[in-house]
Amino acid sequence: MPSDSSGIKYNIILHPGADASNISLKYSGDVTNMFSDNNGNIVIKTPLHNIIEHSPKSFYSDATGDVASAYILRDNIITFYISENNQNKTLVIDPWISGITGYTNPYGYDVEYDWSNNLYVYYNDYSGSNLGLYVRKFSPAGALLWTHVITTQITYEGNFMLDKLANKIYISEGYNGSGATAYRIDLTGVADGFVSQQNGSFREMWDMAFDCNLNRIIGVGGGTSSYLNGGLINPVTGAVSIANFTGLFGARQDIACQAVDGQGNLFVVYAFAAGHMAHLISLVNSTLDGYVWQLNHGMYGFNECENHAPDFSCLGPGSNAFNGLDVNNNYLYFYDGQGLAAYNKA
Question: For residue 318, what are the CA distances in angstroms to 5, 155, 176, 204, 346?
Answer without folding.
Answer: 36, 6, 12, 12, 34
